[in-house]
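Ticket opened by: R.M.
Priority: normal
Category: complex prediction / small molecule

The reporter submitted a protein together with zinc ion and asked that the result be attached to this ticket for the collaborator who will pick it up next week. Submitted input follows.
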Amino acid sequence: MFNVIRRPVAPISLANRTSYSGKDVVKALREDFFDKCYICETKDPMSLNVEHFEAHEGSVDKKYQWENLFYACARCNNFKRHHYNDLLNCTSAGVDVLRLIRHAPPVTPWSTNVIIEAKADDAQTISTANLIFRVFNESDTGNKDVAVTYLRKRVYKRYAKFLAYINIYIDEDSIRQDKDLALEHLRNLMDKSQEYSAFLRWAVLESPELLELLGDAIN
Ligand SMILES: [Zn+2]
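Result attached by the on-call engineer:
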């Protein structure tokens, strides 16, 4: 998960209270959430949509409240639905969603197990870790294993790319320019605007050597 700085002024179409997913709302969410799902961090324009963080359950205020609108993919939205109504709020400045939930990437393209772990014992952190764990480990109903297998493979590819640049950096045969370029790529891959940044950032957080080298890129 990644922190989002939400624009303070609500898109104007929300004031009409006729649609919560007008073009201006979708555009604002896309920009503020770096065009990715706040739960799984996938960039998928085909399935990303407006989600109610707290189910509105008929409340007009909650339905059109800018602060209650999040950007999520259809698959995560389906896992969340009304079952998770007390999640960590990634748009709250005081909530460090990255460090509260440990993400460990799959170590092969076929790994069937992704570790998602709550690092605090409050209800919100536990609930959020549980949802993210399910997203990366559970099959969808009706869709068999295809979606979750594909998702894990995508995370693995990102992680493998990250390791490839680390290999260039540590290779004795690499020249200075190669190393500098590798560092630049590593920083770019772990930027919070990038896909699956939490997995890469946790690889850095858990290695003192990488933390010294790349810690400043955890924005
Ligand atoms: Zn998602």
